[in-house]
Design brief:
4 copies of one chain form a homotetramer. By secondary structure, chain A is mainly α. The structure holds a DNA duplex.
Chain lengths: 199, 199, 199, 199
DNA sequence: AATGAATGAGGGTTCATTCAT
DNA sequence: GATGAATGAACCCTCATTCAT
């Protein structure tokens, strides 16, 4: 008699294993390169079970973004309550973003590359979170300009998007291989944009 | 005998219309969101005809990248032959990248978001081109550091990738709506990373 | 100790609510258009609970037919025990069918349209009941012909199926909206087939 | 070397074989009981080929209805142009319907039992055709009543739907097994509703 | 060069049903 | 009696690609 695999009833564990599998597969082969079947198999369950926990494939994609976005927004709010100089706030913000991107790199990679496939309903939620981040960033820069701490001859929006780009782009190349911590990278960026490259 | 309308064969025109359709559709709905049928219809031909001009769907994706990459590399080489200060060279390089990204934004968008689906053969070519760009960039920065024109306390690789990220990221937000030219954006970036934000 | 709200077990009530939900859903969206999950939700229970009360989805379909068939057969038997003229008997039979179809319209609709999906076992029971009805009908007509009350130049089987069809078809259009009672419709039919349309 | 089945390029033949297969399978196992795969296999093609000829599974269902409806409406119009007594017109109409139902019995069976699953877009077309048929029928009856040829004490709508039901119901039982032609059945019906059963 | 019929492999999703809890 | 997690088979449909015409 063949031994039948016993069913395990641990819904939370199952959900977690699906998310983990999604992160791994989406990260490795992309959203369209990974089928729900692939994900289910990697999670050690059946396709049917996947659909017991998620409504659609897309829902998993959004969840992966949310995991990062939640962390990012919370971390930012913690930084912004402090009453520092604009330079210090910007430095903190840059650290905060680079660190979050480094920590959630698979999530970020997946999201940046696949977000266009989100349907409207899901997209709206994701966009709102990006907007919050940009707004916070720009506020810090404009406060610095107004207070005279930052130079006035630069466009605040362009500067803001430039710095965010610099930080976000780390998802393309940064890996915590011990050579350099996310904080070190962030501080390098901060010096660069605050004091400039010229000796 | 009635005059028969002669069928006009214009292979180059057909090819061009396919590329145009690919750019439009890939840009709007993504590589996986656009079927070969969609592309053919948008190009005013049949699916069969598509396969007369391209071997696979992927080939079109690569071609779209190449169009941008070719322009980018040529523009860069034109800039680098000049014998300027490192600051001037960096400023020129930044202009060159931002301008190219602005001009080929659909191509860039598509490539950054879909490159993971390229098969190895194609991927190799694309990666080689990216590497060339990064190498040129880093060379300029390192020359500046060596000559004493740039500060020595920043990591050249991180700085290089930071600036490239800042420039590349414009594909996410820049649109030539008249408010600001690509050159102006580039110069904003240059001032930011050369002289710093602090007043 | 706080008084715990005692769970009330009312199996019959649950069964009834399932049947009610099945009637509503099958009627509105068809047998295949309504999932067991839909039915359970409409009945205010879980899918698991459904399977405590019914073995399969099909069982509910049969039960819905039975509810109507039982009523129909009983009503017919009540009518046929009376010792009237054939005309009166036919008139009573027509009333009886139209009234039953009107009363159990959802059941009838469902059954006529979905019976083909019954498996053999269930189908046999359902067919037997239809046969009984047809037999009773035909007996009345043949008795009328034999006794000379009805004309002899019509085929008794065709006539029988024609009248049954006329009555059964009301499931397609009759709704008790007050404009006309089932009895009135039935009597209209009776006059039509007994006395004819010609003035 | 295995012999490869050569592709045959006869689109019309393929379409016809799909329709034939659909008629057979829908008739035997119902719309929901027959998968597109089943139909394709029965038609000797692949699922992909099915979708080359039809947009959806539903489209085949509608087509099956259309085939019957087109015939029915055309036949009716041919009958109604004649300038006969109302009795003759009704008799002709009944023949026309019974004959059409007999000829297209599989189509009719399928349609009556599955029409509820048509989506709105398709349903609208089908309903319009049913309405035309009913309207023509009722017009004949009302003209007969007005002219004094038919009795005035019957509701024209109920009478109309009753006769249509009688005719339509034949799809449930009539088969041209030689014992009785559709015309004979129709004339039996005509005598029944025109002159009545009473001797 | 061009067509469009045909292929065949999957893709996402649904669903009746089972079973550990 | 009741729950809901899990199954597994099927289903409709899409799509890159091939090939006879």
């Amino acid at each position: 008699m063949a031994a039948t695999k016993p069913r395990t009833y641990q819904p939370e564990k199952t959900r977690a294993s699906i998310i983990k599998a999604g992160l791994k597969l989406f990260g490795a082969k992309g959203y369209h390169g990974s089928s729900v079947g692939d994900i289910a198999k990697a999670a050690g369950i059946t396709k049917g079970a996947y659909y017991h926990h998620f409504q659609t494939k897309e829902e998993l994609l959004l969840l992966i973004h949310q995991e990062y976005a939640d962390y990012q927004l919370k971390a930012m709010q913690a930084v912004l309550t402090e009453d520092d100089t604009s330079s210090e706030q910007l430095r903190a913000l840059i650290r905060c973003i680079v660190e979050a991107v480094g920590r959630y790199r698979p999530n970020v990679t997946i999201f940046f590359q696949e977000r266009r496939y989100l349907t409207k309903k899901y997209m709206a939620r994701a966009t709102a979170e990006r907007d919050q981040l940009e707004a916070a960033f720009q506020a810090v820069i404009e406060r610095g300009i107004t207070s005279g701490e930052f130079r006035k001859d630069l466009d605040s929006r362009v500067t803001c998007l430039g710095i965010i780009g610099m930080c976000a782009w780390t998802y393309q190349w940064y890996s915590d291989d011990g050579r350099m911590s996310a904080i070190e990278v962030a501080d390098n960026f901060s010096t660069l944009v605050l004091d400039g490259l010229v000796a």
